[in-house]
Design a protein that fits this description.
The chain has one domain. It has ten helices and no strands. The longest helix has 20 residues. The chain is globular. By secondary structure, it is mostly helical. Helix 3 packs antiparallel against helix 8. The mean pLDDT is about 90.
Length: about 190
C-alpha cells in the first residue's frame, strides 16, 4: 500500500467511526451501507495531496482526543443547527473553485450528475442538501492548516486547467465498475453495475 493510500485508509477508519455515531432521529441509508460511505469518501481523498491528507488526519486525531465528532458537526452545520464553526475566508474561495468544477460536471455529465445533490444552496429543501451547503458544512470542520493546504491543492489544479471534481468522480465510477465517466454517463439511467 502506498503512503497516500495508507493515509486515506486511516482517515476513512476515523471518519466512518464518527459517521456511524452521528445522532439522528432515523438512520440515514448511507449509515446502513458503510462500504458505500468509504467508497465515496475514498474517491474524494484520492484527489487530495498527501500534505492535505496528513493535515486532515491530524484534525481527526485531535477531534478524537477532544471527544468531538466532526461528522456530527458537519451535519449540524448543514442543517444550520449550530453556529459557524470556522469563518476562514479560504472556505468561500475553495467553494467558489469547487462549485465551478461541479457546475462543469453537471454540464458535461447531466445523467450522472442528475442522480446526486443539487448544485446550489438556493436548491436546498427539507429533504435534500445541495453540493454548496454540504461543502460549506464540511469545510467548516477543517482546521485552518487543512483549509490552507486544500486551497493550495485546488488552486494549483485550477491553474493547470484540471478539474479536481472530475478526478473525484472518475475514482468513484471506477469503484462502481465503470471504465470511464463517459461509460457511467451513458449507463446512468440503467442503474449501477
Amino acid at each position: 500500500m502506498t503512503e497516500k493510500a495508507d493515509l486515506v485508509e486511516k482517515i476513512l477508519d476515523r471518519e466512518l467511526k464518527m459517521f456511524l455515531t452521528v445522532p439522528t432521529q432515523q438512520k440515514a441509508s448511507c449509515q446502513e451501507h458503510p462500504d458505500n460511505f468509504r467508497d465515496m469518501r475514498r474517491a474524494q481523498f484520492l484527489a487530495w495531496s498527501e500534505e492535505t491528507l496528513e493535515s486532515y488526519l491530524k484534525d481527526l486525531q485531535k477531534a478524537e482526543r477532544d471527544g468531538a465528532n466532526l461528522m456530527t458537526q458537519k451535519y449540524a452545520r448543514m442543517d444550520n443547527l449550530i453556529p459557524t464553526l470556522n469563518d476562514s475566508p479560504l472556505i468561500e474561495k475553495i467553494i467558489e473553485i469547487q462549485y465551478g468544477w461541479q457546475k462543469e460536471m453537471f454540464e458535461r455529465y447531466p445523467n450522472l450528475m442528475g442522480r446526486g445533490r443539487a448544485l446550489s444552496s438556493a436548491e436546498d429543501t427539507a429533504f435534500q442538501t445541495s453540493f454548496e451547503t454540504y461543502l460549506s458544512g464540511e469545510l467548516e470542520t477543517y482546521s485552518d492548516e487543512t483549509l490552507a493546504s486544500l486551497y493550495r491543492d485546488v488552486s494549483e489544479r485550477l491553474e493547470k486547467g484540471d478539474n479536481m471534481t472530475e478526478e473525484l468522480y472518475s475514482h468513484m465510477v471506477k469503484g462502481l465498475g465503470y471504465r470511464s465517466l463517459e461509460e457511467a454517463e451513458t449507463n446512468a439511467g440503467v442503474g449501477r453495475r
